[in-house]
Amino acid sequence: MVKLISSRCSIQSVVPESYILPPEQRPGNSVAPPCKTIPVIDLLGDRSDVIQEIIKASHEYGFFQLRNHGVSEELMKDALVVAKEFFDLPVEEKERFYSEDPHQSGCMLKTSIDFPKEKFHFWRDNLRHPSHPLEDHIHRWPENPARYREVFGPYSMEVRSLGLQILELNCEGLGLESGYFGERLSEGQLIVVNYYPPCPDPTLVLGLPKHGDPHLITLLNQGDVPGLQVWKDEQWVTVEPNPNAFVVNINHMLQIISNGKLKSAYHRVLTSSNIDRTTVASFILPSKDSVIEPAKSLVSELSPPLYKSFKRGDFDNIYFSDTHEEKDPLEHFRIRS
User: How do residues 302-324 score in pLDDT, each as one tens digit?
Assistant: First the structure.
């Protein structure tokens, strides 16, 4: 358990060598400008306008922030508070969830991304667990903090409902039939609670490296501490926290299904020397046996398919190995003209 950076950081006055990135990967002292142009979309706006805004933002940025989304401010704050309480627990309370088995599908605590295999580690601990159907998984979640299940049960249900609503708006905007993303394509949901402790020297490390998310869609509750950056126009820009808004980003599989009309944007996470950061991400993902391919109604002679067909389960290993090497996993599935 000394591998957990949250357990080590209080006694670290310098960055351990295994966390120091090669010079070309370090964030350094450069300050990325806050991105004032990443759209903030009001879900209570006119439906046709909201759809157009979501499609435009998803095409140009792969990211947008969503407010007036229906998830209560209290529940969003409670999720962040309880998440932080979990990482503040004594080591012996957390250790029974710790695992380095990449094939484990239940509730598991990890550090970095793939600690045994990666060349350099990342300044993050994370607790992850499936959350849909709730009754199949909640009994495996932590019982300590005492409110963990009480908070994350309704939180995961409300965020899933919101995610499915966003996917349905994408259906409409792309011209797909209603319910296209129902059933197997949105069967799974994963909650990932991230903790980034203060770092002795944030210029040498990253909380997370440059990557795109592998599934359909991510809804991030990032609280009020900045750290998330998006790669846009050949530079990093900071996604400034927006009170009570979700950061929504398009994932690789949604880019494929949309035949490139929507964009899965690369992003990374910085650390801070004087403040910790806790976030809660919710991913909606297809079942492992789902066939992922460009939607047939989006393919024509004038708009040929850009990607090959594959099963989601076959994508996972390629995604993780390529992300470690900072390669684009979508390159394996592109159709060359």
Answer: 999 999 999 998 898 888 878 77
Cis peptide before 197 (omega within 30 of 0): no
**Each residue of 227-260: pLDDT tens digit?**
999 999 888 989 999 989 999 999 999 999 999 9
Residue with structure tokens 């296209």?
180
Q: How far apart are the first and last CA of the chain?
A: 50
Write the secondary structure of the chain as one string of H (helix), E (strand) and C (coil). Answer: CCCCHHHHHHHCCCCCHHHCCCHHHCCCCCCCCECCCCCEEECCCCHHHHHHHHHHHHHHCCEEEEECCCCCHHHHHHHHHHHHHHHCCCHHHHHHHECCCCCCCCCEEEECCCCCCCCCCCCCEEEEEECCCHHHHHHHCCCCCCCHHHHHHHHHHHHHHHHHHHHHHHHHHHCCCCCCCCHHHHCEEEEEEEEECCCCCCCCCCCEEEECCCCCEEEEECCCCCCEEEEECCEEEECCCCCCCEEEEECHHHHHHCCCCCCCCCEEECCCCCCCEEEEEEEEECCCCCEECCCHHHCCCCCCCCECCEEHHHHHHHHHHHHHCCCCHHHHCECCC
Of 186, 191, 148, 161, residue with least CA distance to 279: 191
Q: Which residue has the tokens 């003209």?
A: 337
Determine the Cα–Cα distance for residues 211 and 267; give it in Å rounded to an integer. 6
